[in-house]
What we know:
The chain contains seven helices and five strands. It has 175 residues and is of the alpha/beta class. A five-stranded parallel sheet has the order 2-3-1-4-5, with helices on both faces. The longest helix is centred in the middle third of the chain and has 20 residues, at 58-77. The protein is globular and about 50 Å long.
Amino acid sequence: MTADEQGTVVWITGLPGAGKSTVAREVFRLLRERTPAVARLDGDLFRDVMGGDLGYGLADRLENARRISRMCRMLSEQGLHVVCATVSLFRECHEWNRANLPRYVEVFLRIRRETFLARNQKGLVSRALSGGAGEVVGVDQPYDEPTSPDLVADTDDGAEPPGAVARRIVELALP
């Protein structure tokens, strides 16, 4: 299969609470209006589907990201467009994706630190800040922001709504 026959991989990344899953669902819906050949992956769900054998330390997070990248490649090589929502905190994964996914669109959903703390995904942030939970990206684990995303969208409260971000992504993915 040539690169032109492969599906596009839309890689939506950002801190927990940035709106990745919400935007990914909308991108998936919009792409499905154009073609049935669309798959959606979510980092949290993917971890469970793959057997739940990985924890949340940096080494396990890196392995999970590698698995997601390889799954995206496999699906896109079959002609599917793939919408992937994942924290994807490692720069090396973004670089691998650029080198190995011919039709790759990287989207960075950016939020301010205050918004990240206020959204408090699953209560993890407040527990980590109070010393009760560890291994939280953006609190006690670093997050490598993408260095050259194809699209940056600010998703703070009152910023660009998820539907508008999704429409911009679809225009990049399937012009």
